[in-house]
């Protein structure tokens, strides 16, 4: 099955959240491919009700509407697909190679350059996925207090990025990666590529803050639905479907 994601861009100077605006459009019947882009967000959202700092023209803030044909249990793969698309776009437009931290963080030099917030919603036209992507273009994108944990394209490359070129490459990459994900063998392919693009996929000592508990272990790749496999000290493998993952140094054990 091949789908066609044809990006149509809707631009705002300022909006509460591009994800919220995309949800409003999806509920009103907007087709797959509609992308909401804003110069600033006044209520940019991260996961678990966290905030995403989104000052004017300091970052790229985009949300795309998808109406995926893959089974809903597999929708976690959409976040992984989007992270790969961000990696493709940054490489093509800025020559920047990034790391992906499971499930949704874009990292450079162990600092957060961007994040993805994928949300599943019900609409009259069936279920839809809203894929929100935030990328720090300049250091002004985040407050000084998180300077040690955050980074921008400008400071990573030493050059002010061309935001329009990045946006063009990003929508192109989402279209290509999404088409691939929806094709036969696309899920296996996406998992393989994600594992090859993330230093967190295998043999990484991590702490997992899950919904009910926190534990440490070593990463052992992904399940077919995108869940992270983590081997705990007694040799069992725990399957992580939600939560935050932090890298531990070898000496932290
Ligand atoms: P997250 O929950 O993984 O990350 C949120 C956390 O990251 C915050 O609690 C804070 O510590 C830190 N943080 C906040 N802002 C920044 C920033 N600009 N740079 C680095 N670190 C930051 C990640 O959630 C998912 C973010 C998605 C954002 C996009 S922007 C377009 C779309 N619309 C929307 O409302 N959200 C998405």
Would you summarize the structure shown here?
This protein is of the alpha+beta class. It contains five helices and twelve strands.
Structure description:
This protein has 253 residues and is of the alpha+beta class. It folds into two domains: 190 residues, Bira Bifunctional Protein, Domain 2 (BirA Bifunctional Protein, domain 2), CATH 3.30.930; 46 residues, SH3 type barrels. The chain is 26% helix and 33% strand. It has five helices and twelve strands. Strands 1-2-3-7-6-5-4 form a seven-stranded mixed beta sheet, sandwiched between helices. Strands 11-10-9-8-12 form a five-stranded antiparallel beta sheet, with no helix packed on it. α2 packs across α5. The protein is globular and about 50 Å long. The mean pLDDT is 95. The structure holds ligand BTX.
Low-pLDDT sequence parts? none
**Could you name the CATH class of the largest domain?**
Alpha Beta
N/C terminus separation = 46 Å
Report the helical percentage: 25-40%
CATH architecture name of the largest domain: 2-Layer Sandwich
Profile the largest sheet.
7 strands, mixed
Order of helices and strands: EHEEHEEEEHHHEEEEE
Principal-axes geometry comes out as globular
- CATH H-tier superfamily of the largest domain: Bira Bifunctional Protein, Domain 2
Tally of separate helices? 5
**Bound ligands, each once:** ligand BTX
Q: On the 0-100 scale, what is the average pLDDT?
A: 95
Query: Into which percentage range does the β-strand content fall?
Result: 25-35%
What is the SS-derived class?
alpha+beta
Strand order of the largest sheet: 1-2-3-7-6-5-4
CATH topology of the largest domain: BirA Bifunctional Protein, domain 2
Q: What is the count of distinct domains? A: 2
Q: What's the count of strands?
A: 12
Radius of gyration: 18 Å
């Amino acid at each position: 099955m091949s789908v066609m994601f044809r990006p149509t861009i809707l631009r705002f100077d300022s909006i509460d959240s591009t994800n919220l605006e995309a949800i409003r459009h999806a509920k009103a019947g907007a087709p797959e491919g509609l992308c909401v882009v804003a110069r600033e967000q006044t209520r940019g959202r991260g996961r678990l009700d966290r905030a995403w700092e989104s000052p004017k023209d300091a970052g790229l803030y985009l949300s795309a509407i998808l109406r995926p044909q893959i089974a809903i249990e597999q929708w976690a793969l959409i976040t992984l697909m989007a992270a790969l698309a961000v990696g493709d776009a940054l490489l093509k437009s800025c020559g920047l190679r990034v790391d992906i931290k499971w499930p949704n963080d874009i990292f450079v030099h162990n600092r957060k350059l961007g994040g993805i917030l994928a949300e599943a919603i019900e609409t009259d036209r069936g279920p839809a996925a809203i894929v929100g992507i935030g990328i720090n273009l300049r250091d002004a994108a985040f407050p000084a207090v998180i300077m040690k944990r955050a980074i921008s394209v400008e400071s990573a490359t030493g050059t002010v990025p061309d935001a329009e070129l990045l946006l063009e490459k990003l929508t192109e990459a989402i279209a290509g990666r999404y088409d691939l994900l929806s094709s036969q063998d696309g899920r296996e392919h996406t998992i393989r590529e994600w594992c090859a693009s993330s230093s967190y996929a295998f043999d990484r000592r991590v702490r997992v803050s899950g919904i009910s508990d926190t534990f440490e272990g070593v990463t052992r790749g992904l399940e077919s639905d995108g869940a992270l496999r983590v081997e705990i000290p007694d040799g069992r493998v725990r399957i992580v479907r939600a939560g935050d993952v932090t890298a531990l140094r070898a000496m932290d054990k």
